[in-house]
Amino acid sequence: MTSATTGRGPDNTNLAAQPDAALRELNAQSVPPGPRQEVYCTKVGTGHPEEMYIVGAHMDGRGLGEAADDNGSGTALVMELARIFSDPAVQTDRSIRFVLWNNEEGGLAGSRAYVDQRVSLQGKEEPAGSGRYPEPKWLGMIQHDMLLWDHGMPRADGSYNPEQRSEADVNIEFQTNAKLADEAMKLAFRFRDANEKYATDYPAAVGHHMTNTDSTPFMDHVASISLRENERGMQIGAGWNPHYHQPTDLYSSYSDKDFRLGLNAAQTTLGGVAQLAGVSLKD
Ligand SMILES: [Zn+2]
User: For a designed S-S bond to 204, which of 30, 36, 117, 170 qualifies (C-beta 3.0 to 4.6 A apart)?
Assistant: First the structure.
């Protein structure tokens, strides 16, 4: 997610202040202006290859830790779903594209570039008569950004509940100000239904203030939602996650219950997008 440096916690901008040599090395890459790389792969639909759902997460991070939650969690979800759908026995009627965006933290630069460069290519067969569609028509965009931590608001003394709160949930947000807000709202509730049916531990809640992630550049072109551990504007914005953009965003900072919330987000999107894309299993 994008944000100015929060100023909370230990120094999250001074590389020399990171005492762990391995983490210094991990965070040594500079952020130059100029072109950056992104990656995607596509499950080509058998009935409608010319239409697709987009399942995304950003792969860049900040804070001088491991960016485990923001956004290793979303990246892992996208890669795991791509692995499942890549099985030749799994067929889908419509296409699904799995995308890892770059430069989200610097202002959604990767997803904006994708929209700018590819919005006009949608649904065009290239070359003509080939049956190939480099950019299938967008049917929905589902973004994943921070999926592990839902411990509730900080206590009066500034400390945090050490485990997931009993009300922990997956937050599915759309944006009321989007041109396609009604379509996005419907998409959000389809994913909430999928959560009820396929997620094993944690429920989902729908909210209407999707913000600060890579679904934003898409939201006037296609129904767009984000899945998160908390509501971005209200809860993460109010300091519910003490590891957000901090050197403590490390895999060792999260428990099995935290990772299980991420698993439930994966189950939600797997079930939701499989239904929407028309999945079937070959004998
Ligand atoms: Zn993020």
Answer: 170
